[in-house]
Amino acid sequence: MKFAQATRPEIVETPVQPDDTAFAGPNDELQTGRPTPALPLWKRALDLSLLLVSLPGLLLVGSLVALIIKLGSRGPVFFRQKRVGYKGREFVCYKFRTMVVNAETASHQRHTQELIRSQTAMVKLDSRRDPRLIPLGSLLRSSGLDELPQLLNVLRGEMSVVGPRPCIRYECDAYEPWHWQRFDAVPGLTGLWQVSGKNRTTFNQMVRLDIEYSQRLNFWLDLQIIVKTLPALWRQYCDVQAARRPQTLAQVGTALESFSS
Fold it and tell me: Which of 7, 118, 129, 134 is the most buried (most CB within 10 A)?
């Protein structure tokens, strides 16, 4: 499938406090914003309906995740970061914190740029036992539980339940012109890429799936993606565990050799 050259969207910044490392709590002022005009009425209604129906379960699961983070490491429960979304609009994205406070980002930036250049499978950096992760941080990330606070972004209209993942500014800066077409859809928690292989795909395959989603956007497609999301998360979790298993065996072997010597 061929895609036309796209005009690079202007990155529109929204004001944010200088420290973007963490969202300290309810005393922080949330950025005000209106729902993105690109959200069709049916899509906005679907988002709000899913939030309403799942709210009790989300509160329970969210409370358990917050407890795990609070007991496992020092620092705030929530993390916030600028992301680039629809038509290049920049917004503050919320997550549960899964890394130590003030964790360095240079390694992730190098990893991302390598994935874009090499076109190899998009294996997450934390699948290699990322030392920046807090206890159980890998589990929260591979299960997608760390993304639950982004439902606040959905409520505010900055994201949708279904759509391409919003990227970080330095990822966008490494894009080729045709990659920018993925900004033609409002970003989401899950999407066509996530249920079509995700970490088993290359970067270009991800972008093509995101563009395909924006071109095929309809109610039934969103429903199909939502239904397929839980099985896709399970596959992702299994992939991460499989990638880490050889490292675990190697560490056990090294420990046994040291003990015997």
Answer: 134
Distance (Å, rounded) from C-alpha 80 to C-alpha 23? Answer: 6
Number of separate domains in the chain: 1
> Is residue 219 situated within a structural domain?
yes
Separation of first and last alpha carbons in the chain: 58
Domain extent, residue 46, equals 41-244
In this structure, the number of other CB atoms found within 10 A of the CB of residue 102 comes to 11
pTM here is 0.79
Cα 34 to chain centroid distance, Å, stands at: 22
- Alpha helix positions (H), 163-202: 169-173
DSSP bridge pairs for 91? 83
- 182: tokens are 């993925």
How far apart CA 101 and CA 5 sit, in angstroms, is: 40
**Is 5 contained in some domain?**
no
C-alpha distances in Å from residue 203, one per residue of 11, 33, 114, 217: 21, 30, 10, 21
Instruction: Report if residue 21 sits inside a domain.
Output: no
- pLDDT tens digits along 29-87: 333 345 556 789 999 999 999 999 999 999 999 999 999 999 999 999 999 999 999 99
Sign of CA dihedral 230, 231, 233, 238: positive
CA distances in angstroms from 3 to 6, 87, 207, 212, listed in the order given: 9, 17, 11, 10
Give a yes or no: residue 18 inside a domain. no
The DSSP bridge partners found for residue 92 are 82
Which of 176, 188, 195 minimizes the C-alpha distance to 233? 195
Q: Is the dihedral of CA 228, 231, 235, 237 positive or negative?
A: positive
